[in-house]
Amino acid sequence: MTGTPEELEFIPPAKPLIGIDERRAVDAVLASGGLAQGPEVAAFEQEFSEALVESRPVTAVNSGTAALHLALVALGVGDGDEVIVPSFTFAATANAVRLAGAEPVFVDIDAETFCVDPASVRSAITDRTRAIMPVHLYGHPADMTAIGAIAGERDLLVIEDAAQAHGARWDGHRVGSRSDAAAFSLYPTKNMTAGEGGMVSTGTAATARAVRLLRNQGMERRYENEVVGFNARMSDIHAAIGRVQLAKLPQWTAQRQANAAYLTRELRGVVTPRVRIGAEHVFHQYVVRVPDDRDGFAEALRSEFEIGTGVYYPTPVHRLPSFGLERDLPETERAAVEVLALPVYPTLTLRQLDRVVTAVNKLAEAGR
What we know:
Blueprint lengths: L19 H13 L6 H14 L5 E4 L2 H11 L7 E5 L5 H8 L3 E5 L10 H7 L4 E4 L11 H11 L2 E5 L7 E2 L2 E2 L6 E5 L12 E5 L2 H11 L20 H31 L12 E2 L5 E4 L4 H12 L24 H9 E4 L7 H16 L3
Parallel strand pairs: 2-3, 2-4, 4-5, 5-8
Antiparallel strand pairs: 1-9, 6-7, 6-10, 8-9, 11-12
Helix pairs in contact: 1-8, 2-8, 3-4, 3-7, 9-11
């Protein structure tokens, strides 16, 4: 690697991929004059269903948070219920539970995958528990075999937070294809985007219909409001972007996986990601552990090597001011001070990957 920080081009930690195909798709919708939820949304739902959730019913909404929220409400989760969630996640996971009127019960994670620990889930079940909400964090699927077994024993719902895991598999099955419901995010930095939006995959047609009612003011037919609902619709503009991105997702995922394999093979002095047997990781984030002074390490990558990184997540959700709880979650607390996401997105060049490897290894060797 040559050049001073002033001469090196900055490598951002994430990079939305929007090109001419997406622009043309949006232009076509604008030219049609039909901008709100319409034929593009319907086509996107069908294509997403076939490509990513083994042809289960899919409903498009306006965000990943809305997808979680509407899934909970559609399944009848509400006042007096508890939903088991990991604390090491984005706040939207727990926010959706609270917005549905239920209470999130925070549990610990597995140290290797950063996903919810089934043993911690089992120990948190009470007579008020209604659902388990595993998060497929960073693109690695949670242990759905163990979670499904626990849910079956206790007659609990399973609602997946698959916001970061488009196309990931556990035991040969796509995430979002075997639970009561699953929520995907289409935020700009996700593995695919619609500009903004979300998808709800459901286990039954009845649940899918409930989500469709809830996203559209409680009605399927105009002015025939059956329930009190929300305005959580996706526009045809966003769906048009999503359809183009969905077609590109397999190639992008393969490149993310190849980039991750390269980093894992070449990096030294940091703890690289573990992929469990039976899991297909789609590497929304490539997250290493830096046990000593993670924040100083990240700052040195930025200031000395012009390499951006991300910390997902520095504060466990249970300790955020919005919840303000004390819990004994040792693996969650350890992860919060050690994790560091390195660039892994599909458009990274080999030269850029080499820069990341060289910088990380130099800093690790120097004990920074």
